[in-house]
Design a protein that fits this description.
disordered N terminus, 3-stranded antiparallel sheet, 4-stranded mixed sheet, 11 helices, alpha+beta
């Protein structure tokens, strides 16, 4: 995939270019390919069965997504073995992953870890070599920070390769750990001596969490402390920004399925969706989803174009989209009535993913504070 032509970033002190919130034909083609794959490999019964097993991730699904479609390397330039696309295309993949709540380490590996390495790969070296492996889909990596860490919390939690980091998403299935320390950013093999993973029981069973303990571990130094902080901040910013697209996918599925169900479910010889109170609730939810789409696309476009407003766009998207996803999932469960409360119906998967996502890479409250700071507005 050839990198799309992007408008140049605005010069300092100049207004940013108008964001493009529409989907291109290439992005729609990518959506169709990902949706077809997930419909075949990650339908609701399959995902529910995976959450009940010890291995929620399907290696064949990841291979098809990462290698067959080439999604793992969307953010990686072609010269480093990637697809040379942008955050806009990666956002489309995450919309579809949110729509299916498929258990796949795409956000943590192909977005956060990849964007962190991209900040360090300009001069080649071990960062570029690892990036090529991630782009091929042969290996996965995670940034060893708590899943709730916001972009502003990019400071190293460890002084060296000794200590404990709790709540690391997808750590248990990663091949490489990117560990930020006071000395710099290290790449540590997950299977290396001195690395201990303790699985946690997360609310969202489709995205496993683990406590990572390092004791005498060794790794490859990728960057010094200053470069490490900037790289980690970039990775977390991309993760928070594109998480909004996953939340959009969750909300869209919940709205679509709720409308479909209320059209089919009859009470008093009428579809329950024809009752005015339910019409108003679903109409309000539709307005929220449309607004969430605008916010998520704005964040993805700002990241793709390198806009100086990217931190603000990401903060706005997360401050809004996390609440919309939770609201849509709650309405989905309630308006499905009795079946919405069962384990067999997938509604609970979306509610759990939405709840877990609402505190990932910073809570909505922390992002609202960031909006106030970045926009130079008085804090609420």
């Amino acid at each position: 995939m050839t990198a799309p032509t992007q408008p140049p970033a605005a010069a300092p002190g100049q207004p940013s270019a108008t964001p493009d919130l529409l989907y291109t034909q290439d992005e729609e083609d990518l959506r169709s390919a990902v949706r077809a794959l997930l419909a075949d490999r990650a339908d609701a019964p399959t995902v529910i069965a995976a959450t009940e097993s010890d291995t929620p991730y399907d290696p064949r699904l990841w291979e098809a997504l990462a290698t067959g479609i080439g999604a793992a390397g969307l953010l990686v330039p072609e010269k480093l073995g990637g697809q040379g696309a942008s955050h806009r295309e990666a956002a489309v993949v995450l919309e579809e992953l949110g729509r299916s709540v498929a258990p796949a380490p795409y956000l943590t590996s192909a977005v956060v870890a990849t964007d962190t390495l991209l900040a360090l790969a300009g001069d080649g070296g071990p960062a570029a070599a690892l990036l090529a492996e991630l782009a091929s889909g042969a290996r996965t990596a995670v940034l060893a920070v708590p899943f709730a860490t916001p972009p502003s919390g990019a400071r190293a939690a460890l002084t060296s390769l000794d200590g404990t980091v709790r709540g690391v998403a997808d750590a248990a299935v990663a091949d490489v750990l990117l560990v930020p320390t006071a000395e710099g950013l290290y790449a540590v093999e997950a299977a290396a001596p001195g690395v201990v993973m303790e699985p946690l029981v997360p609310l969202d069973l489709t995205r496993p969490l683990a406590t990572l303990t390092l004791s005498g571990a060794t790794g490859t130094l990728l960057a010094d402390a200053d470069a490490s902080t900037a790289a980690v901040r970039r990775g977390l910013l991309a993760g928070a920004g594109l998480l909004a697209s996953e939340q959009l996918g969750i909300a869209e599925w919940c709205l679509t399925e709720t409308v479909r169900y209320t059209r089919e479910r009859h009470q008093f010889n009428r579809p329950v969706g024809s009752f005015q109170s339910l019409k108003h609730r679903m109409g309000q939810l539709w307005l929220e989803v449309v607004s969430a789409r605008a916010a998520a696309r704005n964040a993805a476009d700002a990241l793709a174009t390198g806009s100086p407003d990217a931190p603000l766009a990401v903060a706005v998207a997360q401050a809004y989209c996390s609440g919309v996803a939770v609201h849509a999932a709650e309405e989905c469960v309630q308006l499905h009535g009795g079946i919405g409360m069962t384990w067999e119906h997938p509604a609970h998967l979306y509610l759990k993913r939405a709840k877990a996502d609402s505190i990932a890479y910073g809570s909505a409250g922390s992002h609202r504070e960031a909006v106030a700071e970045l926009a130079e507005l008085p804090a609420p």
